[in-house]
Design a protein that fits this description.
- The protein is an alpha/beta fold.
- Helix content is 40%, strand content 8%.
- The chain contains 19 helices and 10 strands.
- Strand 6 (275-279), helix 10 (297-303) and strand 7 form a beta-alpha-beta unit.
């Protein structure tokens, strides 16, 4: 069989679904989303016939992705959600050259947020909350499952599948492996195991393609004591922390509190690893909710101008509606970030950076008009040099649909004029895709491109492209039942 995945072509290449990454309750599709999916499938059938292609072959082509995005444009326009749109010629669904001109590109794509688990780690035991929780993810029955081991489904989230989803089935060229909040004993991916994946990628890539975060939760005993080892032995490029998380279901913390936050920043500064990546937004629930907001970001950015504070998810809360910045209602969401920066005099393109892992993935399919507000506010207030690309994958499978959607995305002329948002030019998108992150992570882009042009990973990808077979599967809980089953297993943790 030519296609091992979805041979009948029943999965759309732009995934419109309810998937959560485990940090928020899956949001049911509205009727117009269901109509969009049905309309996209009808258009695929028609356009594939016009191209003389089978459904599966059409789905994995640029015309397949263009067809899905054009169907989304029609549905959003019918709802009056026109602040953000996918700027594609109407014939791109059948004209391969037009589709490729928009949805393919040669940008340097540097994904600053990725995840996977070690399928053979010490946490793989009957008492581990992670081993039970992953079983609630829909992809636990993925095509990569091997053997009859009762925990074989964990292989669906391993380093091998991370490499396939991210480096084979998307245009990503470099990435950062991030960590999840957990105790030392229950970590589904330790620094040692992440380093093993880095070594594998580097061997294939003949150079550095994968950077590592060092996980530090200063409210967890022992974490700060391990910081020096993370730097000297494992070469972490930055620290990753979760201010809403607390051990044993305890409270979170703020970066500006004197008990946990300030000592953490001071130690990071002393060690010379001056990038702190902090999860802000996508709250884990009402527990310690205030610590998921951005009210502390401007305070510490002002106090430590030589440090870099990188906000994962950009403060976005899926339970709120994003609109133009309103300081009177800026207690959460991206507005809370803008307010904190403004009140503390932190200018655009200073020492605060943002990425939109999960945030863009949610908004691009659910409400591109809200997406236009989020991109617009961040680019205007955080700065065009300080907004970066991140996808939160492997939790969502391959990030290629996120890449294609952003290549086509545009903030409307109305929003640009009314709110002062910038136009998403090709040059600005290239900065977001990779150039902005490359500067703070010290990546020589021309040299990296040259190394990567003909390395083992590039050759493997070229060979794979001859028989490309992306799964178009999303991982993660898709229903409230799956989400709360996961929560029962993890308490206040996340995936």
């Amino acid at each position: 069989m030519r296609y091992r995945h979805d041979p009948e072509g029943l999965r759309l290449p732009i995934k419109i679904d309810t998937t959560s990454n485990g940090e928020f309750t899956p949001m049911p599709l509205e009727p117009y989303h269901e109509e969009t999916i049905a309309h996209a499938h009808a258009c695929v059938t028609d356009n594939a016939r016009r191209r003389g292609m089978g459904r599966r072959a059409f789905m994995i082509s640029s015309c397949g992705a263009a067809t899905a995005l054009l169907a989304m444009n029609q549905a959003n326009a019918a709802q009056g959600r026109t602040g953000g749109t996918f700027d594609l010629p109407k014939t791109a669904g059948v004209d391969m050259e037009l589709a490729e001109a928009t949805l393919e590109g040669d940008e340097f794509i540097f994904d600053v947020q990725g995840h996977h688990v070690n399928a053979l780690g010490r946490w793989r035991n009957p008492n581990s909350p992670w081993i039970r929780g992953l079983k609630n993810f829909p992809n636990s029955a993925c095509a990569h499952e091997i053997g009859k081991d009762e925990y074989a489904y964990v292989n669906c989230f391993n380093g091998e599948n991370y490499i396939k989803d991210v480096f084979m089935d998307s245009d990503t060229q470099m990435a950062v492996m991030s960590m999840v909040p957990s105790t030392f004993e229950d970590a589904p991916l330790t620094i040692e195991e992440a380093a093993a994946t880095r070594a594998l990628v580097d061997k294939l890539g003949r150079g550095q393609r994968l950077f590592l975060h060092g996980k530090v939760n200063p409210n967890l005993p022992g974490d700060m004591e391990r910081m020096e080892e993370l730097k000297t032995k494992w070469g972490v490029i930055a620290w990753k922390t979760y201010t809403q998380w607390g051990p044993n279901g305890g409270p979170g913390y703020f970066l500006d509190d004197e008990k946990h936050g300030i000592p953490f920043i001071e130690k990071a500064r002393a060690l010379g690893v001056k990038i702190i990546c902090v999860h802000k937004g996508l709250p884990f629930g009402r527990h310690s909710y205030e610590h998921s907001t951005c009210r502390d970001i401007g305070v510490v950015a002002k106090r430590y101008p030589d440090m870099i504070f990188m906000l994962y998810h950009s403060g976005y809360d899926a339970g709120l509606t994003e609109g133009p910045y309103n300081p009177a209602k800026a207690e959460a969401g991206a507005d809370a970030l803008v307010k904190s920066l403004t009140e503390n005099g932190v200018k655009p393109n200073a020492n605060v950076y943002c990425e939109l892992g999960s945030t863009w993935r949610i908004l691009m399919t659910r409400d591109p008009a809200q997406g236009a507000h989020v991109w617009g506010k961040l680019l205007k207030h955080v700065g065009e040099n300080n907004v970066m690309w991140g996808t939160d994958c492997i939790w969502y499978g391959s990030p290629q649909d996120q890449i294609q959607a952003f290549r086509a995305f545009q903030i409307s002329d109305e929003f640009q004029q009314k709110y002062g948002y910038p136009k998403l030019t090709k040059e600005l998108k290239a900065k977001i895709f990779g150039f902005n992150a490359s500067k703070i992570y010290g990546v020589d882009v021309p040299a990296q491109r040259k190394r990567a042009a003909n390395d083992a990973l590039a050759r493997e990808k070229e060979a794979y492209a001859e028989a490309r077979d992306p799964s178009f599967v999303t991982y993660g809980p898709k229903t409230r039942r799956e989400f709360f089953a996961l929560r029962r297993e993890h308490g206040s943790g996340r995936l």
